[in-house]
Write a structure and sequence with these properties.
By secondary structure, the chain is of the alpha/beta class. The protein is 45% helix and 16% strand.
């Protein structure tokens, strides 16, 4: 017990810890040998003081070594995963994954579930009736080999110590900070056999990074620690003061992503998806540069191959292919409530946190891990920053169910939009690329 107290004090004072100390702590937490109050104090000290590159790498290695590591040694090109680090309306991965797979990128994807304001790729795919995310590891590997893509959630076979540490963080208010988020993300991906990772970092009121400085810090840590683990890292920082596209919520986002794959849908969603698909092709060593990757991604969307690959992958995991042909058949809440503006002017700002609170009140996301969610509910955002609005215009439509806390959802949505008499500039969507796709 004394050694854990010493570790807490040293980290509280900002000392760097040795790799063996970090691995010893992680192993002891996994065996439940560290008292909860001491583990919580240590994790909070990490959030406040942060970790340096070596410490973050040591955490990632300790998480990774706590479970199995899958292998795809027969592939000519390295397996790649795609990670989204939070952001309202972040459905670009639904498009980018099958688009890259058209050209032979192998994608063993370990995805997250929604938590508070951060959407989860697992929940979005589970909005398709029948879609399975509980594949065995053998099924997961076979699906990657046969269709090029498989998507599962983290299991107790893959970096289980990270699950335990994350539960402690969630239950003790220590989910903040970049370092443990980076270590956990990279460990989960590496455990599934990933040798390359493309990450979209959402930046703004509706993203994990609230400003560009935070986004740069996250990108730098991902690149440095990922390369230490032998993972090729690239990605982009995207503006997320605006939600991406119009849809927030699992079924609505799936419908919007399918529209893009059919040559319809919002231009901003397509732009981010094409950028991510190009990065997957670069990191996967299928193209020489990002420009070539973008051209190939646009071709696969335009000629329908990307949509066909999405359908192949989804049906391979038990999903109803007819729901992709006719996305209006996806589960949908029957209630509709419009939030209208009481004044004319220009939309100057959108508070992504307030829209996230509205989505939570509808039941679309989780307050705590393990909570249930409702795929049917969500928000459809009609106006974006810089748009001219007239009194009585609908700003956002809430899609509700019988389980939704409608009044609370409306109140939060009403607080999300700031109208100004002065014109507001449109925002640049992709702020920059980073890592090996810079």
């Amino acid at each position: 017990m004394a050694e854990w107290i010493d570790l807490i004090i040293r980290k509280r004072e900002g000392e760097a810890l040795e790799p063996e100390e970090i691995s010893g702590f992680v192993e002891a937490v996994q065996r439940e040998e560290v008292p909860v109050e001491q583990a919580a104090a240590f994790l909070m000290a990490v959030v406040i003081r942060g970790l340096d590159e070596q410490e973050t790498t040591s955490f990632a290695r300790a998480f990774l070594s706590s479970g199995q590591t899958l292998r795809f040694n027969e592939f000519t090109y390295p397996p790649i995963d795609l990670g989204e680090t939070g952001g309202l309306g972040g459905k670009a991965a639904i498009i980018a994954l099958p688009t890259a797979a058209v050209y032979g990128v192998k994608l063993p994807v370990v995805a997250d579930r929604s938590l508070r304001h951060n959407g989860g790729l697992l929940d979005k795919f589970e909005a398709v009736p029948g879609f399975r995310t509980d594949l065995s590891l053998a099924e997961f590997q076979e699906s990657v080999r046969s269709t090029g893509i498989a998507v599962i959630g983290q299991t107790m076979d893959l970096a289980p110590a990270e699950i335990r540490v994350n539960q402690l963080r969630a239950n003790t208010g220590s989910l903040g900070g970049v370092s443990l988020t980076v270590a956990g993300l990279l460990a989960r991906k590496a455990a599934a056999g990933t040798r390359g990772l493309v990450v979209e970092i959402a930046c703004g009121s509706g993203g994990l990074a609230k400003n560009l400085a935070e986004a740069h810090s996250l990108a730098d840590d991902l690149f440095a620690v990922g390369e230490n683990l032998g993972i090729r890292i690239g990605g982009c920082i995207t503006e997320r003061d605006n939600p991406l596209g119009h849809a927030i919520g699992d079924s609505l986002e799936m419908q919007e992503a399918i529209a893009v794959l059919k040559g319809e849908g919002p231009a901003d969603v397509k732009e981010v998806a094409v950028n991510l698909a190009a990065s997957l092709l670069v990191i996967g060593q299928l193209v020489a540069d990002h420009a070539q990757g973008r051209n190939l991604a646009q071709e696969a969307i335009a000629d329908g191959r990307a949509l066909a690959k999405l359908k192949e992958f989804v049906t391979n995991q038990g999903g109803d292919g007819q729901a992709l042909d006719n996305p209006e058949q996806l589960p949908r809440g029957q209630g509709r409530r419009d939030v209208v503006t009481q004044r004319s002017g220009y939309l100057k700002a959108i508070d992504g946190a307030a829209l996230g609170d509205s989505w939570l009140a509808l039941g679309g996301s989780r307050i705590r891990r393990g909570d249930s969610t409702d795929h049917r509910v969500g928000l459809w955002v009609h106006k974006k920053i810089g748009d001219k609005v007239e009194r009585g215009d609908t700003l956002v439509t809430l899609h509700t169910s019988e389980k939704s806390k409608v009044d609370a959802a409306i109140e939060s949505a009403e607080e999300a939009f700031l109208i100004s008499p002065e014109p507001a500039d449109k925002r640049r969507l992709i702020l920059e690329n980073f890592g090996r796709v810079r």
